[in-house]
Amino acid sequence: MRKTITRYLWLILLLLATVFLLQQIKWLPSFKDVFTSQPLEIDNTPLVIKEINALAQLITITAYNEVVIEQTIKGAPVFSGPLVPSIPGMRFPDKKIILIGKGKVLAGVDLAKLSDKNIFVKGDSVSVSLPKAVLLQVILNPSDFETFEETGVWSDDEVRLVKQKLKDKLIITVLRQNIIQKAGDKAKLIMENFLRDAGFKKVTVTVGS
Amino acid sequence: MLFKKYCPFLLLILYCSACNKKEQRLQQVMALQQMSDLATVEYVVTKIIKASDNKTWYKIGDRKILMSCKATLTAGIDLSAIKSEQVQIEGKNITLTLPHSKMIAVNIKPEDIVEEYESIDVLRQPFSGEERNALAIQAETQVKASVAELGILQTAETNAALFVNSFLHRLGYEKITIHFDNASSTKN
Fold first, then answer.
1. Are B101 and B73 in contact (CB under 8 A)?
2. Does the ipTM surpass 0.95?
3. Which residues of B touch A118 (CB under 8 A)?
4. Is residue B183's pLDDT more than 70?
5. How close, in Å, is residue B144 to chain A by CA atoms?
6. To the nearest 10°, the Cα dihedral for A190, A192, A198, A202?
7. What residue ranges do the domains of chain B occupy?
8. Could you tell me if A100 lies within 8 Å of chain B, comparing CB atoms?
9. Every domain of chain A and the residues it spans
10. Per DSSP, what are the bridge partners of residue A48?
11. pLDDT tops 80 at residue B19
12. Which residues in chain A are contacts of B31 at CB distance < 8 A?
């Protein structure tokens, strides 16, 4: 009798061990996966080209930065209708969102603004007056955002506004790093090298301010 | 007897369960980076983000969302890759070898992702900001994966050749030959 029980126990143990092994090598789904929420996946919809624009932007600096923004919206009074008087202190709970954004800002000069009057050539001497350096792109893609905390129901418009504020904060942070000046200096250097490679002996490049 | 019989098998299971790979995480460093990219083309594309949350068996009711997004793709060439030996000058003739084009940026601005439609059944929670962003991340991945099919890199090279040609013409060169490695285009 005891021998039979032991044999059954070993068989059960062996069965469990086999299931465990198969789960480890991903041949069987794990038990917790059965109760895990399925990931939400989007359909593979086509891309539609709306515009094709020719550019001539000399990008000379990329500034990477990380900024955090916190936004709280106070809860509305529970009774806010004209017929029912509002009770002080009776409000819906506040909602709060904290976003972290890791973005990058591209700066440089727009060479499309170069006209004939900005280029002066005489023999082996050249003088080029570049337009002033500007921020060309601020990149904060969806994958650059992290939601650190989110309480309450945030509408799409509300979240978008918070993200735009975060973008503005990123621009301010990056501008403090003197990126425009650095972009102008680098553009000057690139243009000088290019003109020397193009055969000019005396090269003068200025950047608008 | 049985223990001896199954012991190696149990040991194998223990070994397998102990073999958890640990991922090494690299420390990100954020700083200013100098570049020498000439952006020559910008494609503005749109995409519909469509998702239905009805695949989890124990959640009663569906959630559906439809968003639209606009992405700006920028491509161009890296001017720092042009070496002095890639420029040949003979009087008023110049031959220049430009590097092949590359993607410079994919930009999906927060204001360009707009929710168009949302349907939530009574027993389901509305989509959170984080969930909507997760869907937008998937769209971003799909946009990045489709770059090759858009032909943006070819357009970037054509525009780069046109711009460099026009610039060198202003500098006084009369015959300008521009190569992209093996392929070449001659503009007079």
1. no
2. no
3. none
4. no
5. 11
6. -170
7. 35-187
8. no
9. 1-37, 47-207
10. B46
11. no
12. 64
